[in-house]
Amino acid sequence: MSLVYSGVLSHAPGITGRAHLCENTDKRDEFYAHLDQQRQDIENSGAEALIVIAAEHFANFFMNNMPAFCIGVGDTYEGPIEDPEWLKIAKTSVPGAPDLGTRITREVMQTVDVAYAEEWKFDHGIMVPLHFLTPKYDLPIIPVNINCQGPPLTPLHRAWAFGEALRRACDSVPEKVALVGTGGISHWPATPDSGKINEAWDRRFLDQLVRQDKEALLGYSDEDTYAQAGQGGFEIRTYIAAAAAARGVGELQFYTAELPIFAVGVTVAKFDIAA
After folding, report:
1. Is the omega angle on the peptide bond into residue 13 within 30 degrees of 0, that is, cis?
2. Do 156 and 205 touch, CB atoms closer than 8 A?
3. Whole-prediction pTM value?
4. Which candidate, 15, 176, 181, 273, has a CA 20 to 30 Å from the CA of 134?
5. Helix (H, G, I), strand (E, B), or coil: what is residue 268?
6. For residue 36, what is the domain's CATH number?
7. Residues 231, 212: Cα–Cα separation, whole Å
């Protein structure tokens, strides 16, 4: 039928794994409430499947084979690949959507070169969002990866084109499809600067994102992003793809830099689905 929902959210492992260490529990719970509202919005959209555009962390793709884009077409997936005690998410089986995923992949391939995978181990980049958005793991998932890890990284304008292709593909199928882009904005994972947040950079990017300022969004260089937002900032590609798929302006529903234990400024936003 069409794309019925598009939004973005953070996926840092600390969101679940270090929740018990939060000192600002009011702000943490406010964030969780917005994640639950996002879950309700997806449910209310009538979505029959959820595309999760993520940036995985060398759990499946390595420097011997690093696709710019990959779409999952498996029957089922397992996750998390990390220690469940560390992430505070139990290992589970997640349903896929192999037929729908294959049809979407075929349509995306008309304009964007994309890999596909029948096997995929979910890391926190997908499992943390699913923990909040589909807590019963009863909504079929189509995982998507954009290379935000191994240079040369997927160019931002190609991430935008990929989002456009996903929108066209979703609109070509009879099922109702929801989509989320997941990732961090400024953050410095696995470095001495872990926990650092550039709030000004984050807010500037998020303002451009919800206004659909394409020129500004595609104007970030990797060098500037690395300097201002860390290597975690490269994950803006997933947000850009979600914006391109939606076409409509967005609403920043939640952002705070007041939860440094999560090592990222946590975010929830949604977009209007425009023609």
Report:
1. no
2. no
3. 0.97
4. 273
5. strand
6. 3.40.830.10
7. 23
